[in-house]
Amino acid sequence: MANRIVVDNVAAGYGTVQVLHGVSISVEHGETVVLLGSNGNGKSTLINCIMGIVRPSAGEIYLEADGERFDLIGKTPEQIVDLGITLVPEGRRLFPALTVEENLMLGAFRKDARARIEQNLEICFEAFPTLRERKSQRAGSMSGGEQQMLAVARALMAEPRILLIDEPSVGLAPILVSRMIAKIKELKEKRQLTVMMAEQNFNQAIKIADRGYIIVHGEIAFEGKNAQDLQDNDMIKQYYLGV
Ligand SMILES: Nc1ncnc2c1ncn2[C@@H]1O[C@H](COP(=O)(O)OP(=O)(O)O)[C@@H](O)[C@H]1O
Ligand SMILES: [Mg+2]
Hints:
Blueprint: E1 3-14, E2 17-27, E3 32-36, H1 43-50, E4 58-65, E5 68-71, H2 77-82, E6 85-88, H3 100-106, H4 111-114, H5 117-127, H6 129-133, H7 144-156, E7 162-166, H8 174-190, E8 194-199, H9 202-205, E9 211-216, E10 219-224, H10 227-231, H11 234-239
Parallel strand pairs: 3-8, 3-9, 6-7, 7-8
Antiparallel strand pairs: 1-2, 1-4, 4-5, 9-10
Residues 43-44, 90, 166-167 line the site of magnesium ion.
């Protein structure tokens, strides 16, 4: 049941503004790949291209699943979720007036997942016991950390094989970021997920990265073969570690 995503020479933007300039990356089966870059460099645009939310103007994006190739460009986000790719969006995008449980249900629209709502709810509540205690609370009244848990749990309700996570650290206190990063690693191992995570918080992202890319002005400026490789990179030292 091997899965990989390939992004090949993708260009994309908004109106006349080009944001991605020939980006090529891959996410291999079972990996945690991090996409590092400070604000405005195109991380979300790239993730949204994979998810069918932004349509590239050039290049290819495809999923290889169990030996079969699925072109993703031109597919709707719903069709892409059906292929087993799920997004935890930047800023969480919860429905604040709905309860925790209702938000979770909205993650379960995928055909395969609808039949297993009870089992998947149990998986979410086991991963995040706070959500069980608060299942009747309105999402909008929860803390930032709890909302991030809910956003990840909602993605799990779709039974993804590949999880895309866009900046889980945003707006969270450092201790909560550490916990969330550790939880992503735990879930990845338990649920046998393939993970791609966009982050500007280098020190946190590096903790779970098998390898990664640095994106600058919509181009891949560096490809790190492993976490050490990323840590040793001059750009990282200069911009993220203050060396
Ligand atoms: N919906 C949009 N419409 C127009 N410009 C956008 C939109 N989303 C992002 N951009 C622009 O694209 C560039 C890259 O943004 P983004 O992909 O969000 O970067 P990052 O996720 O790395 O912060 C920025 O200049 C941003 O202003
Ligand atoms: Mg972003």
